[in-house]
Fold these 3 entries.
Entry 1:
Amino acid sequence: MTAVQAPSSAPEVLARCRDVVQPALRAAVGRLHPWVAEMAAYSFGWCEVGGAPAAAPGGKGVRQALAVLGAEAAGADGRAGVPAAVAVELVHAFSLLHDDIMDGDATRRRRPAVWKAYGTGPAVLAGDALFALAVETLATEPQGARAVRLLSAALADLVRGQADDLLFAARPCTGPERVTPGEYGAMAEGKTGALLGCAAALGAVLGGADEGTAGALDRAGRHLGVAFQLVDDVLGIWGDPAVTGKPAGGDLRERKKTYPVLAALGSPVARGLPGLLDAPGMAEEAAALIEAAGGRTATLAEARRHTVAARALLSAAPLAARAAGDLFRLLDFLADREL
């Protein structure tokens, strides 16, 4: 009798997909100008400044996993989605390099950001090179034209989301010009969700999926991206620093207009919140008021709503059973992490 294979856990799914993608990702980066390739490798945690090998912490590899699983969901071998995974991972790295410059963030994954380690101009150049390499990676595929169109549309949404995020910082906490939770959700879909949806859809396209299946995966990934961002917002205020690697209440000290803050500001209980946000050293008091005003509860409820929407889209799509199961496990893992 053949033994039934136990379903993989979400961390196992992520690890399996990383193992499939990493050789191709490293090979792609190796085609860049040596100096630019070093900056790219540093951004991925593969080396130190100067090129000495390193094993710095990298990301979870969510986007590359979605690309591989997208191909498998279409009934293809996961390796068919590797070019999509490489392209999306390159675009994600490009966006982080530029985001850190725009936001003035000096660290990334507990190391100096690329712009601090190499300089602003070189970091911009490295980001541009990663973007160009991503397009080249997809353009050479049999479904290249369709894939590049999908990536271009996701990038347009990402830019709109980033633009809104930058503009939100200058808007007031109260009054008719305040940022609403709805506006924040649209921003999060563009800035975070667009690339997650694109990853799954691109993998499916390279795996031979039709427009309907690729579209369902794209929309599910977008909902996942919003849920991921909302959970991140909760962790940014109430997360354990030992787990997040960030100081408790860091988002409040930086006066970020995250979803818990915006949701709380709609409650009369939080009338004193704008003053607390503007006062140095009051992050703990602000966090308590946000929670009392329902900001934390509202954020987690909104994250669950997007998770349910993503599950519904995946359930309705004609996906290969094992890949669908892996997608569901990944969705739950990312939406419920460390809460």
Entry 2:
Amino acid sequence: MPAPHTDPAPTGALNVRPPEAEVQRRRNQRDAVARSKPAGPRFVQVLMAILTPFFLLIAAVRVVASPVFLWIEYYRPGFPGDGYGFSTDDRLTYGSYAVDYLANLAGPRYLGSLVLPSGDHLFNAGEVSHMADVKGVVLSAYGAGIVLLLFFVFAFIGLRKTKGAFVRGVFAGAFVTIGIIIALAVLAALGWEQFFTDFHRIFFANGTWTFRLEDTLIRLFPGQFWVDSALVVGVLVMLVASLLVIFCWPTPRRVARREAVQAAVGPE
């Protein structure tokens, strides 16, 4: 008696192994997907590398633009005195007004209304106008610094589940920062006067930032003050960038630790 006809089970095809070439093709596709990195984290890392130098420079400027640095500068050995009669205490008092003005919300009258014991105005109209321009630049830089800080906070939050992404961004930014500081240092060393002049031309109109030797701004902030300020800013930025390179360097131990943490966290 012939055996009854039966249709093959619907899942029977699942038990048939595809050709080896097809198996290898699918395996290669899976490996390629696993190795590929999303474009989003890469874009954020590039932004971090570009913006890190600006953030560190703004932070260093904020440190220098303070009464503490002013006190250290005026009382350090070798700082040139004022040949027109200001004592060190006078300089610290009047200079502190100028520094405070850059960080507060007061208008030009804050400096324009200051008078000397003789009754003369401490700052003339040109000096007050220039300080108002400087204040605009400084407050804009501080505002940009706050925005950059928020960017790095959000970058950390957004990249925390992508293994080592934030650290790599900081690492790249630190190297970019070191390169920029070295380049600026070379330019300043080759010609400080030209470097100082070009810097002012970027932010201020010609004729608004040059004064006579007897003007108060020059007496409070002589050329040596700006040399020292630039040096301190450069050293601070270079120091922080170097520390970031050291602590973010991808040593095998750190890479293994990050991989262990990523494995413990698991995929999203």
Entry 3:
Amino acid sequence: MPEPRTPRTPHPSAPEPPVLAEVVRSGFVESRHRGHLVVLGADGTVERAWGDVDAPVFPRSANKPMQAAAVLRAGVPLAGRQLALAAASHSGEPFHLELVRALLASHGLTEDRLQCPADLPLDTAEAEAYLAAGGVRERITMNCSGKHAAMLAACLRNGWPLDGYLDPAHPLQVLAREAVEAAAGERVAATGVDGCGAPLFALSLTGLARAFRAFVRAPEGSPERRVAEAMRAHPEYVAGTRRPDTWLMREVPGVLAKMGAEAVQAVALPDGRALAFKIEDGGVRASGPVLARALHLLGLHGEVLERIGRAPLLGGEAEVGAVRAAF
């Protein structure tokens, strides 16, 4: 592998990023979402780019496949649904919570060992049902609880301390950083704290797209390939039944997809083509239309893209506009 590169930090006077999505209400452009998008060809080279795709961003949960690969490199024999859950931002549906509990129990762990914050289910419908049934915020319902359960299992496997497993200097997090850098082919530009409390490693969008490409092109049996195969085989455990990542991986053969908070998305196709984008203002409502348009540019078509790209606006109870891609 070539020496990892360090993405550059954008200059304060850098040009304003291009508009990737428009919010159109009653035929009037009400708002605009700017952002950065990179598309890689099958050989891994940049084919198209909008904005500054070499400046670092926090990929947020789009880093989870690399973190799951680190858990495998630590010797935890995860596979199938459990491995998909280790790379998940799950919706908090009952089958997600059951599997997190089973993963913890299989290693003699309990929910109180999780160091992710207490939260409601990520999916709005699930959160409403959960509250209606008398539920309260818990660590296990937080969307990253599967990742945290897997990290705890890695600590047990290696005799590493359970307390402090989220410290960037912890052996597991050092391994995670190495997995991120190896897949992206560049140095981590900054380390922050993710919403779940875990270390967050900044990459360029080009590096993020390369990382997803590396996972689908990795040798059979490698940690990266095992994570990709688990995610594609069990997409409902990576996201949920009403989520675009699930729809895309279920309905387009061989695709690997993972969103991140603040409107980050990465996708790789089995032939090595890949994309990654970040909406500058973190506006998640723009993600679906931008993702669908970018996939169209990669030659994908079909009802699933129409579903992902549909973002209607309501006026009263009537549909009066939409968020639409603008590139």
